[in-house]
Design brief:
By secondary structure, the protein is mostly helical. The protein contains 18 helices and no strands. α1 crosses α2 and α9 packs antiparallel against α10. The longest helix has 26 residues.
Length: 349
Amino acid sequence: VDLDTAKQELEEFIPHVRDIADDSIRKMAGRDLTRFKRFKKQGIAVKFGRFSQKENNQIRKNVEEFLLISGIDNAEKLLFTSRYPEDKETISRLKAEHLFCEKLSEGIPRPWRLIYYRARKMFDPNNYKGRYTNEEKEKLKRYHAVHGNDWKKISELMSRSNLSVAMKYSEIKSAVNYGPWSKEETQKLMRAVEEVLRKRTEKEDANSLSSSKKSHRDLLIDREKLYKKLPWTAIEAKVGTRYWRQCKHKWTSIVTKKMTKGQLLCRGIKGLQAKINLIKRLYEMNVEDPNEVNWEELCDIIGDVPKAYIQARFYKLKISCVPFWQKKTFSEIVDYLFEEKLPELEEKL
């Protein structure tokens, strides 16, 4: 299909498709459009966001099956072919012959590119090598000074994954402060978010409103846009002294305080009742994976808050109450909270 038709057809499944580069849209039209239509007939929506455990298992199954039918030795050769220059031609031929793109994405209602990146992250032996030593951090700074954002090159030099070196550099590129937020830092964060929101609103206005309405519209922002899909790495760069995750958590707390008019929602009797309600609702949902939870539906447990606040409450609950929670599945954590912690909280209440 031609580019305009591809955009039009893909827009049904990917609302922001017109913001994607033309070259990427052409690839999506070839790799994804037929799959998306097939999923639609089955009543399955295209997904974004974090991969569920079920999807991760499907990727493993798809990769293992492709290795069997193609005869390629291992997943690293399949997904990181450039690391094996002597075998590159043979591997590429086998991938084409056995329809690698179709096989990898089988049963997963997501854009192929995202499935491919997820598979690379899962099967990269360089991706789980523990904490960076001080020596590695200094090497990373030196390599970045020479190679810039060529993460592929730097990952080869560091024997770490592309994602790992990019994320670690984002964390260490400036003097990150781990203490309480200063007034100056908080103001920088608020200005950075405001700048992002204003630019986004101006872009929307240019597409939908006449110039006479722009000045008034500039002050009106839908509440959900205050905390959904913000470009945190860009905001991190503007703040300068905090890692992007810190910026996100701080902004969530600011928005929550504004939305709740400064009420202390998780202390005293209200706090106990909120924990009890959260545990009960999660137990009733009976889901196996946190990505299957509709966190927005749980907001009424505490009050008028963003879903990130609820997720943060659950995280705090599990790390403070569930022994060895890192080794437990999501459903095991919820079961433990329901069976062991809930009676204690109810008695305390």
